[in-house]
Amino acid sequence: MLLGLGEGLFETQLTAQNYLDFVFQTTIPLAFIFELPVIIAFLTSIGLIGPGLLVTYRRYAYFILLVLAVILTPADFISDLAMTIPLISLYELSIVISKRIIKKKMKGEKNGDLT
């Protein structure tokens, strides 16, 4: 249906290469970005970062996430906003997860469990 829109005005060129380029340029980077909570949980569990660090540098993280959203989405404000809000939410979720991991570690150390 959409392919017939503006018939005669445009030449539709659907190829597998165009589709794969789209997939690799949008879907794959977004999939990695949405792994943010898992990556932060791992880094917290091995002791490289903590919730205090995440809270301290929250302003800079928001800016970096905004820049990533602008780079990865089409050039309109709504798409940028639609990407930025979930990314910031994931960052905040990462802080909560990091706090829980630290709390579990502290509780384990109190009980004598060093794992």
Automatic annotation (TrEMBL):
Location relative to the cell = Membrane
Keyword vocabulary terms for this entry: Membrane, Transmembrane, Transmembrane helix
Record-annotated membrane-spanning stretches:
28-48, 60-78, 84-102
Q: How does it sit in the membrane?
A: Multi-pass membrane protein
Record-level GO BP terms? intracellular protein transmembrane transport; protein transport by the Tat complex
Q: What are its GO cellular component terms?
A: TAT protein transport complex
Which domain of life does this protein belong to? Answer: Bacteria
The UniProt entry lists the main location of this chain as membrane
Q: Which GO terms describe its molecular function?
A: proton motive force dependent protein transmembrane transporter activity
Q: What is this protein called?
A: Sec-independent protein translocase tatC
